[in-house]
Design brief:
Blueprint lengths: L1 H13 L7 H27 L4 E3 L2 E5 L5 E13 L5 E8 L5 E23 L3 E27 L5 E20 L6 H21 L1 H20 L9 H5 L3 H16 L9
Antiparallel strand pairs: 1-3, 2-3, 3-5, 4-5, 5-6, 6-7
Bound molecules: 2-acetamido-2-deoxy-beta-D-glucopyranose (2 copies).
Length: 266
Amino acid sequence: MKLLFFGLFLVGICNAGPVLQEELLVGDFFGDIIAKLIQGVINGICSKIADPINIADKNIVLPDSQLASGHFEVKDLVESGLKGLKATNITVVTISPSKLYVTLGIPSMDINTNYDADILLASLIPIYGNGLANINFKNLQFEMSSGYKLEMFPKMALSINDLSFKLSIDSATFDLHGVINNEAFSVIISQVLDDTIAPFINNHSERLSKLLSPFLEKIINQAFSGSKKLELSATSFEELNEEELKALMILYMHSLQSHPKFDQLF
Ligand SMILES: *[C@@H]1O[C@H](CO)[C@@H](O)[C@H](O)[C@H]1NC(C)=O
Ligand SMILES: *[C@@H]1O[C@H](CO)[C@@H](O)[C@H](O)[C@H]1NC(C)=O
């Protein structure tokens, strides 16, 4: 209600138009403010992103579970392309139920790293090795939809809720070396990942959204609250819903099984 009065007040100042249109004008007015706030946050993030980004070495020890155990280390990880992040559509629905639709796109993104892995998947599939890993993602589209709350006092603050998203990607290309310390196998596994990862992401976008949205919502709200440092840590990953993660892994196993090179994998 406070919000509506404030809006009417400003519209009153800015526009002495016919009364009938005021409600519409309020909506447009807030839609504009919110769209600009979002664009501002995105521009702010983009201006701070280095290209390339060197990411600190990480040794992730997986908590012992039936899903996966062991450790995974990445060294000299370099990301490039994230700076190309652009909002291609920001749509704000100000009439109840208020909704926010934001589409983000990244034309091309590369990850180059050294890795050292010793993991046991599903208590039976060993994945080990070390070497270089290069991954390229083409045309990532990230369509988000959420509710939102805009507070005006004590200062203007936007926060989102009930986030869901649709992720689509044109291709994910892998160039892995040293998997099970075998170059021929590394070539095969790279091809299989090329063929399966992008279609898997596109096919199971809804489940990915279920798994990752709570975690992303937190990060986005941190960005809106002007937090200087976005907290991304290994513990964040432990907050992921294990049931959803398991369901996704099983679905991925199924898509692997129908790949013509499946026999050469295990
Ligand atoms: C932007 O997103 C809204 C909500 O999903 C959709 O209705 C609209 O068609 C989109 N516009 C463009 C230009 O993609
Ligand atoms: C994705 O869906 C298509 C069409 O339904 C199907 O042919 C393909 O096998 C699926 N791929 C994966 C990896 O889930």
